[in-house]
TrEMBL record:
Coiled coil: none annotated. Its main location: cytoplasm. GO terms for molecular function: tRNA(Ile)-lysidine synthase activity. It comes from Brachybacterium hainanense. CDD domains: TilS_N. This is tRNA(Ile)-lysidine synthase. The gene is tilS.
């Protein structure tokens, strides 16, 4: 008997590998027993997420798991409720035991644009639904094409290693099986593969009109820049960009984890807060002993902690010049005034300590 088409088999194997790894991890942590035998799939109605839903429903069923489609209606077009309703119907036909539609309000005039506001709203619902259902995992349909676009946009914006590491295939309970198993981009699926899977399932998908909006960087990268790069640099450019992310990803994750551990240790030895404005103190000599790649990460993480401690969290990350100025306080400079940071705080040097404190009013 002939097996499933090759593309379907590849998709199933990617989803199976991700779910099996998640179950194994939870079994080690003895956390699996507390979780419902359910997986969530974020479905936009696009080809990538419908293909993922169909694949997951098939695989999960055979692993004794239920599949719930989670559809977020951003209410950004007039027909958005109808699009969400049709997607839910398709998901049930493709084997989902449940299909949840959540309507969210998205600010259209926010600082990061509609795209970022929609993403933030989506992530909030994802986290909430994971909590409500106690599901094992939430699966998202990002493909190798999304990864290539992400890396290119990161480079274009002058991003560092984190930007070049692209979209993580696994982050806690959030899994992106179509990015490939264990950072192996050769097992990733292309957007065209997901369209083929949808056609094989006779499932109509929705094309997001925002994808064609030239005002958005992502649309220009997808519609103009990558086609040109394929023509000029070769058809393998998407795979090569995704490979760069796969190669750098583990290095970045390792350094980030190391920096978190070192910050924890430095905080333990950091002494008591002395002034009312103080938020966080670190021993400057201990910090100076860390290599530069860790120091800059520790400074970023510490600044985020201090911002949270101040109760004035901003959605801005540290600028490169702020990191360099803070690092200069550590390695070379003693009497300099505080370096202003996001969230109305600053970092300064005082008595052998690096001090994060509320900024002078
Ligand atoms: N409205 C939605 N409802 C539920 N899931 C969604 C929705 N939009 C996107 N997703 C999920 O996110 C995946 C990626 O979608 P898309 O590429 O449009 O988002 P993105 O903005 O690039 O991603 P991210 O959310 O990571 O920034 C989809 O395959 C789907 O799993």
């Amino acid at each position: 008997m002939a097996g499933p088409p090759r593309v379907v088999a590849r998709a199933r194997s990617a989803v199976r590998a991700h779910l099996a790894a998640r179950l194994e991890l939870l079994a080690d942590d003895t956390g699996a027993g507390h979780l419902a035998p359910r997986v969530l799939v974020g479905v936009s109605g696009g080809a990538d997420s419908l293909a993922l839903l169909a694949t997951t429903a098939w695989v999960a069923h055979r692993m004794g798991l239920e599949t719930e489609a989670l559809i977020i209606d951003h209410a950004l077009q007039e027909d958005s409720a109808a699009v969400a309703g049709r997607a839910a119907e398709t998901c049930r036909r493709l084997g989902a035991q449940a299909a949840e539609i959540r309507r969210v309000q998205v600010r259209t005039d926010g600082p990061g644009g509609i795209e970022n506001a929609a993403r933030a709203a989506r992530q909030q619902v994802f986290a909430q639904r994971l909590e409500e259902t106690g599901a094992l995992a939430l699966l998202l349909g990002h493909t190798l094409d999304d990864q290539a676009e992400q890396v290119l946009m990161g480079l274009a914006r002058g991003g560092g290693p984190r930007a070049l590491a692209g979209i993580p295939p696994v982050r806690g309970p959030v899994l992106r099986p179509f990015l490939g198993a264990a950072r192996d981009e050769t097992t990733a699926l292309r957007r065209a593969d997901t369209e083929e899977i949808c056609r094989l399932h006779d499932a109509d998908w929705w094309e997001d009109p925002m994808n064609a909006d030239p005002a958005l960087l992502r649309s220009r990268v997808r519609g103009t820049v990558l086609p040109l790069l394929r023509e000029q640099l070769g058809e393998q450019i998407d795979e090569n960009l995704a490979r760069a992310a796969a190669l750098i990803g583990p290095d970045v994750e390792h350094l980030d984890a190391e920096a978190r551990d070192q910050l924890e240790a430095l905080r333990r030895d950091g002494g008591e807060l002395r002034e009312e404005r103080d938020l966080l103190l670190l021993d400057v000599h201990a910090l100076a002993a860390a290599p530069g790649v860790l120091r800059t990460r520790i400074l970023r993480d510490a600044s985020r902690l201090a911002e949270a401690a101040a109760g004035t969290p901003s959605d801005k990350s540290l600028l490169r010049r702020q990191v360099l100025a803070a690092d200069a306080l550590v390695v070379s400079w003693h009497g300099q005034a505080g370096v202003p940071l996001p969230g109305r705080i600053e970092v300064a040097r005082r008595d052998g300590l690096l001090v994060w404190r509320r900024a002078d009013p």
